[in-house]
Amino acid sequence: MATPIGNLADFGFRAVETLKKADAIACEDTRHSRPLLDRYGIDRPLLALHEHNEDAQARRLVERLMRGETLALISDAGTPLINDPGFPLVRLAREAGLRVVPIPGPCALIAALSASGLATDRFAFEGFPPRKGPARLALFGSLADDPHTLIFYESSHRVEATLRDLAQTFPPGRRLVIARELTKLYETLAMTTVDAAPALLEREPDMRKGEFVLVLEGAPPAPPDGGELDAEQTRILKLLLAECSVKTAVGLAVKITGARREKLYRAALQWSGEQADAASSAG
Ligand code: SAM
């Protein structure tokens, strides 16, 4: 069940009542959860379930469930399994035919999206972007054309690098909401654009602190020409791709031809995919 992501008053009534009745509560870090549970008068045994013991602990917990116990699962904050432990336990429990009851509540991505002002009808949650720059840029490049609102989690250690990479990969003007410290004292939801975001953090050092959700506007619908490149754009992009990485080639082609970044990315990724296929069938 979900627990608060900052403001302890966000703990749901049903969650509290259910925790009070559980035989035991599985949580990520017993020292972290104890103060929250104490505050709500919940005095049940705690069991640690974290990324280092998940598989073995999930098997033990399912055995207990099969003996008829009622167990609750919480994480440090928000909804378990959403970038938090719990997946092996839920999967095993369901495979064993046990009843798994969700008790919904706070979740940082939904809180950020619902207050972002960006489209909520179709969205994609991408979790934490890769920590290493090249992998991060590659992921962002592959998403440049995605029409869904894109949602990322990020920590204060990497938010500046991630925003710089977003600015490099997505077309200028693409709207971005930086949601930080949701439900807490310094909650901020700043609407900006990918190109303006790095300067915003430089101007306002407090914007680099805390926990972050980045909500990025999806790509606009393809233009009526179907997004095809014309002959000159094709020639330039192919020349550049022969010499540089997809990212550099697309970046240069945007500057030289003035064509839309999404359109160039789509063509570049398609050609490099075709070349890789041809090389693997030749080998
Ligand atoms: N299970 C959680 C949920 O339901 O949102 C997410 C856990 S994940 C390990 C932690 C990340 O969620 C943080 O690094 C941050 O990106 C995001 N997050 C959690 N609480 C937040 C908050 N109060 N404000 C902004 N982002 C938050």
What does this structure look like?
This protein folds into three domains: 8-95, Cobalt-precorrin-4 Transmethylase, domain 1, CATH 3.40.1010; 108-216, Methyltransferase, Cobalt-precorrin-4 Transmethylase, Domain 2, CATH 3.30.950.10; 231-282. 45% of the residues lie in helices and 13% in strands. The protein has eleven helices and eight strands. It has a five-stranded mixed β-sheet with strand order 4-5-8-6-7, covered by helices on one side. Helix 6 packs across helix 7 and helix 9 (231-243) runs antiparallel to helix 10 (246-257). The mean pLDDT is 93. The structure holds S-adenosylmethionine. Residues 5-6, 75, 77-79, 82-84, 107-109, 153-155, 179-184, 211-213 line the site of S-adenosylmethionine (SAM).
Mean of the pLDDT scores?
A: 93
Low-confidence stretches: none
Number-wise, the strands total: 8
Order of helices and strands: HEHEHEHHEHEHEEHEHHH
* The CATH topology of the largest domain: Methyltransferase, Cobalt-precorrin-4 Transmethylase, Domain 2
Identify the CATH architecture of the largest domain. Answer: 2-Layer Sandwich
CATH class of the largest domain: Alpha Beta
Percentage of residues in DSSP E strands: 5-15%
Bound molecules: S-adenosylmethionine
Total of domains: 3
Q: Kindly, what is the distance between the CA atoms of the first and last residues, rounded to a whole number of angstroms?
A: 51 Å
Q: How is the largest sheet built, in terms of strand order?
A: 4-5-8-6-7
Structural class computed from helices and strand pairing: alpha/beta
Name the CATH superfamily assignment of the largest domain.
Tetrapyrrole methylase, C-terminal domain
Count of DSSP helices?
11
